[in-house]
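Budget justification, computational time. The allocation requested in the original proposal was used primarily to generate structure tokens for proteins on the priority list. As evidence of use, we reproduce two of the resulting records. The first is shown immediately below.
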Amino acid sequence: MRSKAILGIAVILALVAAIPVLAHHSFSAEYDNTKVLVLKGKMVGFEWVNPHSWIHVEVTNPDGTKTIWKGETPPVNVLYRNGWTKPMVEAMVAKGEIVTLRGQAAKDGSNHVFANGVTRDDGKTVLGLSGAPPED
């Protein structure tokens, strides 16, 4: 009897622990893996938050108007392991640093991508998701 109660509690705890996994969105439901965009512009913001951070890049369109594009980045811990730090990101935003943002386009046509690469104007990659640290 006691072992059934323990088993029941264990099952309930496992189900409760799985709720955040079920809430996570599917990449293929939100992004078009066949449509990769390369956007160059001024880094104007960065939301250093979980579960995914967001880079904001102001892109100048051919007609001279400007559009803010958002790039969904991996979780903060992945950014950190790839060499990103909050002070580095804050300095890039403060300078209005020119970056190239690469990523898969949102399926809904909105101005956001799943960021799989960010390169500084001097050609140094700061986010490559290869596991390698950023270039000095």
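The second record produced under the same allocation is shown here.
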Amino acid sequence: MLVYVLFDYCRNIKRIIFYSLIKPTINEKGEKEMNVIAPATALQIAGRAGRYASQFIEGEVTTFSANDLPLLQKLLNTPVEPILVCYMPYCKVLVNLRHELVVRLLDCNGV
């Protein structure tokens, strides 16, 4: 099954290499800006390396360019605001979402 293969493949990542720490964004004026990724984004991506109960319990994170390494270290050591509230949708919303996903999956497969 494709989902299992992707999951199995993704959890056995030993090393993450950031090619760039810059992300292009569009501002309110419609102009392109180049911004450093948020610390939470860096942590989320870096967290893919090494997982409990995987082939690599401890992961490695680095940058393609040695010049970016100090910035990556700063991003990974920046405290991230904790999530204080998390809203859970009603059961009926989840059931409707599940139904919609199944219908779309069947449409994609020509069933």
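A brief technical remark on that second record: DSSP finds four helices and four strands in the chain.
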